[in-house]
Amino acid sequence: MGIIEVRNLTKFYGKSRGIVDVSFDVQEGEIFGFIGPNGAGKSTTIRLLLSLIHPTSGSATVFGKDVTTHGPKIRQHIGYLPSEVYYYEGMKVLDLLKYSASFYEGDSTTRLKELSDLMELELNRRISDLSYGNKKKVGIVQGLLHSPKLLFLDEPTSGLDPLMQRKFFDLVRQENARGVTVFFSSHILGEVQRLCTRVGIIREGKMVEISDIKSLQQSNYKKVSLSAPTLDSSALLLPGVSNLVQENGSLNFFYKGDINAVLRALAGLQLSDVAIEAPTLEEIFMHYYE
Amino acid sequence: MNISVFKFEFRRHLRSVWNWALASAAILFVFFAFFNTLSEQAALMNEVLAQFPEELLRAFGMSELNFASVLGYFSLVYLFIQLFLAIQAGNIGFGLVSIEESELTADFLLTKPVSRRVVLTSKLLAALAALLLTNLLVWPASWGAVMLFRAQQSFEMSKLLLLFLALPLFQLFFLGVGLLVSLMVKRVRSVTPYSLGLAFGAYVLNAFGSVVGDVSMELLTPFKHFDAGAIVQRGGLDAKLVLPNLAFSLLCIAVSYVLYLRRDIHAVS
């Protein structure tokens, strides 16, 4: 049974589209990447799962419970880091975190200390005095404070400097190692690639691909780059070759199919350099959007 | 009810409690400081007032007032206090849930493991507690002003108490209507224009209704339902006006629950 099970979930805001007929599962203990450009429906999906908004049709369960009827029970074990963090401006960081902790069962005093030390959070400052990045750090501590079993991260790294980003990723991996399931939404493919085991790609409100990140990268496409003083690209017009670009003595293309076929074709060419590599997620991603 | 939300909300209202209680106390003492002088010349005063057009006096709720008596004079100040407390209750009502959306903290609160029903109940109870605390400050201030400046005149304590008890019921209307309207509009950017509009609107409706003598208009406004002059004259609240008023306030709150439970909390952008 999946930790999250989404079935034909649809949300319209009046006439404008949120998401249409989205279905997917997230298994316990995995880091599920959810990628798509702005406005594709990433936040809509997360907000539906948190019962901040109500579905037009379809259903979703978290921990096996329906999100529309069991919201409070489900949220007991959920941590949420929104893309934009806003808190009660007049409050001190410590008071906000204590207020947040008061909603959950169990004592989180030591965890509060650990997390805020790790994120270098100044507990006695007012929320209104914090920079965007520091507010984000408050959001991270707040989202993890009650040791949730499921984490929703909605474009979590915006506003964090690279050092903090790394600390944050380490923290997410550490939580994941303890068995926490992570739902990681982002439009930055590099970070999804670094962190996630499986990804769902959403486009204009529809799920276009759900795949293991490794199989997405390896079994499908190869990126081939060639360098040679003179090149006749006609030898490479094989089935499975796409996005062929030739300029200044270099030639790049994507290849999908039997790798031996392309190697035989390359063997007949006079080359000064060759590279065959797995495309980055970004390149695959662009492919889905063309 | 959730204790954390209640405490948080109650603390948030405290400033409003002090401010409006202080404003009410100030106007009470300033007005009553003149009572002695005015009541000595009540005959003259009533003569002066008789010169004014009847419509003007009605508009200011002064047509049935008797400046010579303590309660008659208090009824005049009471109108101002009603106006203050209407604005306060409106402020709290309009802002009760909309403030989470305008200050973008709804995501924080509503992703906590509490249901919307519990959130709204806790917020309402905190608001009622704050309004009650305001009353608990205004009542002794009123009593103090009356006792200090009554100039040995006697008055019926029971009628004064009746006026006191009418205040929280009066405020409930503005709390309920404010809450309901805030959930019917898409977004409340600032609370003050709404609450001032509601309070002065209801006041003007009462004044205007008095001038043209149209009874049906008056029935719409709580300033008429809880009219001090009428309460003092009757020696009791008019159930025909007060009960529908209470029923309407409670209906507003009930509908607010339905709307809040169904409401989509949109992402920040």
Detailed description of the structure:
The complex is a heterodimer of chains A (290) and B (269). With 290 residues, chain A is of the alpha/beta class. Helix content of chain A is 32%, strand content 30%. Chain A is built from ten helices and 14 strands. Chain A has helices at residues 42-49, 71-75, 93-101, 109-118, 132-144, 162-177, 189-195, 213-218, 259-267, 281-289; strands at 4-13, 16-26, 31-35, 57-62, 65-66, 78-81, 150-154, 181-186, 198-203, 206-212, 222-227, 241-247, 250-255, 273-277. In chain A, the strands form three sheets. In chain A, strands 6-7-8-3-9-10 form a six-stranded mixed β-sheet, sandwiched between helices. A four-stranded antiparallel β-sheet of chain A has the order 2-1-4-5, with helices on one face. Chain A has a four-stranded antiparallel β-sheet with strand order 12-13-11-14, with no helix packed on it. In chain A, a hairpin with a 2-residue loop joins strand 4 and strand 5. Chain A is elongated, with a radius of gyration of 23 Å. Chain A starts with a strand and ends with a helix. Helix content of chain B is 80%, strand content 0%. Chain B has one domain (3-262). Chain B has helices at 3-33, 35-40, 42-51, 54-59, 70-102, 106-110, 116-149, 157-184, 191-212, 215-218, 222-225, 228-234, 239-262. Chain B starts with a helix and ends in a 7-residue tail after the last helix. Chain B is built from 13 helices and no strands. By secondary structure, chain B is mainly α. At the A-B interface, helix 1 and helix 2 of A face helix 6 of B.
